Amino acid sequence: MQIFFKSYADLNSDIKKNFDKISGNWDLVVGIPRSGMIPAYIISLALNVNCTDISSLVNNFPLKKGVTRGIKNNISQPWDANKILLVDDSILSGDSLRKEMKSIPNFLKKRITTLAVYSNKPVRNDVNIVIEFIPLPRVFEWNIFHHKIIEESCISLEGVISINKSNGKDVIKSSYLPSQKVNTIVSCRHELQRQKVVDWLKLNSVSFTNLIMVNNDVELNNMDNFSIAKFKSEAFRNSSARLYIEGDAEQAKMINRNSNKPVYCQASSKIYNPGINFEYKEMKAMGKLVVWKMLNLRPRS
């Protein structure tokens, strides 16, 4: 199985290379919180126009801007804008966009053009502009720890959920805390420390189904990179999880090779997918993606 992925860097790059789809005489860019605010600010800075959120648009709150650069269309309130670009990071069913549009006064709707950076369909009529087609299953760097994929993931405790132990201090410090229930947490701490780890996870509101720990005489400090990756690979391979989340790039690659399942590396912001042994649905999605890319490589008049 392959999982399609976009990082912050990909988001910026995809907007840049498709900027001809966006460029125009916009007066205002509006982002749909939370994720839509990221591309909205990227686009607004490139266009050199004001940016705000849905609530501020609906309530006509005064626009805020810095003093270090001049704005092309120097309007003071959202309702002064004649051309508005409404931005979200992605569109799936279209329900979120429809819900947001319902909250907008009718006289403003006529001024709005909708944009989704990523769509799960190559062609659709519920949004005006799509930047890139990306098939399912997909996940983004900015939402991976809050995505439902976490319920089908193995996550390394050390290096992801917590900072690796250092200087010999047996202290657990939080790093990236998932908001969804984790399928399996994998820790290189010894089984004797289970209660301590469980208590720490509970204290930090991290819920999980399984917790796998080292059950021999060797612990993280005494394991080489290969042994750690082998331990994690076995845990992943024997689990029902579809994705592994790892903090070390070399280990991520080894876990991917050993398990033949996708691994997301927090350090490199990449997903390492298994070799091209696609099922029918994945082949169909890849075919659509190839056609989309071919069509979008054609010179635009």
Task: Write up this protein.
This is Phosphoribosyltransferase domain-containing protein. By secondary structure, this protein is of the alpha/beta class. The chain has two domains: 4-134, 3-Layer(aba) Sandwich (Rossmann fold), CATH 3.40.50; 144-268, Rossmann fold (3-Layer(aba) Sandwich). The chain has helices at residues 8-17, 37-47, 54-59, 95-102, 106-109, 194-203, 225-237, 249-259, 280-297; strands at 4-6, 28-31, 50-53, 84-91, 112-119, 129-133, 138-140, 153-156, 162-163, 173-174, 182-190, 208-214, 243-246, 263-265, 270-272. Strands 12-11-8-13-14-15 form a six-stranded mixed sheet, covered by helices on one side. The mean pLDDT is 89.
User: Architecture of the largest domain, CATH level 2?
Assistant: 3-Layer(aba) Sandwich
Mean pLDDT: 89
Domain unit count? 2
Shape: elongated
Radius of gyration: 23 Å
Major sheet: 6 strands, mixed
The CATH C-level name of the largest domain is Alpha Beta
- As for the CATH topology of the largest domain, it is Rossmann fold
Number of strands: 15
Give the structural class.
alpha/beta
The end-to-end span amounts to 38 Å
**H-E order:** EHEHEHEHHEEEEEEEHEHEHEEH
Name the quaternary structure.
single chain
Q: What proportion of the residues form beta strands (DSSP E)?
A: 15-25%
Major sheet: arrangement of strands: 12-11-8-13-14-15
InterPro entries: PRTase-like, PRTase_dom
Organism: Vreelandella andesensis
Protein name: Phosphoribosyltransferase domain-containing protein
Domain Phosphoribosyltransferase: 15-120
